[in-house]
């Protein structure tokens, strides 16, 4: 923990609120500067125009590749070796550049890095256990913020509206016992809730604070929203807030969990995919379709569904055809909402991984999360832990008002069918699923990688 965090955590609550606001103003300058303003305006203005998406992407791609050639030693050498002729004449020319594997990036991270000041650090890691630090410039960050705010604006949410965010930041001292687990950032009119203090003992206080603040939008880690929503249902707590939209980030959720959040918090959920590794943003429109923000980059789908991302707004650690580790499908259909970005039908493996069967076959999250459909409402949350090749621990939080021993047998049968007879599966009913250091709750904990 840095000195700043220590000072913060040992300050009284009113001072913590002040520090949160001051930090908010600093972030505001970094994130909402001139580059942000310009891109946000561009996106808003463009809504009425007809755009040739491929031509627009090609132009941005060429600018980005030229930038990489001039500022990144790795790409300068690679392009020379490939005898690449820039600018490209068509988007498919991009295939002349080989995919960038995580391992390659890790080994060459120093020479991929450009000569630009890029003080913002993002971490990659995910399910593989490999951790790579990537750098972003302040301008890169402002472009991301502009696209996120544009996404929110299309759902009627503007900057400055009352906003609640669930964050994994500490915010609250370990020693604090009074039930004030939130801090106000007046710079953004944002009430921050730390997910680290959410427990059966504190959840009612969280829900009351949400209702009192009466948010116009809610965002952040969905696992927190889900836990609170279950608690509200269990305790019969009826919220009066009516947010215009709810924007979960960073974790995948099932259809049922999404429905639950909408029911309890009384607002529509719109999902987004914004990998911390600098993949272009994919966000959901009012028709429920997921669109690529094509101004931010290119997503190529390999035959097996794995994606390669080229991200135009990675000027610190440029990513070209980077195998980010996620899978998507796209049927190339269009949408009537007016967003011109290609429609992505599904996104899989969002940082939460898979189980590996002894024969090497992977069982992905979408299959694993379908389990709860077998037992509607009698299981609140689950976690799969793969301890070794043939050993899986399955944790679940039963809703004791509905759960019976018969359900446990059903669970066991389902898991055996899904994972095969070779796999040892032990089931354990628990009160809560432990959170990771990051504050997230994982569906799959892969200990084998
Ligand atoms: Zn759409």
From TrEMBL:
Task: Write down the species.
Answer: Exiguobacterium undae
The major lineage groups are:
Bacteria, Bacillati, Bacillota, Bacilli, Bacillales
The protein, known as: CoF synthetase
Q: Which InterPro entries match?
A: ANL_N_sf (IPR042099), CapK_Type1_Caps_Biosynth (IPR053158)
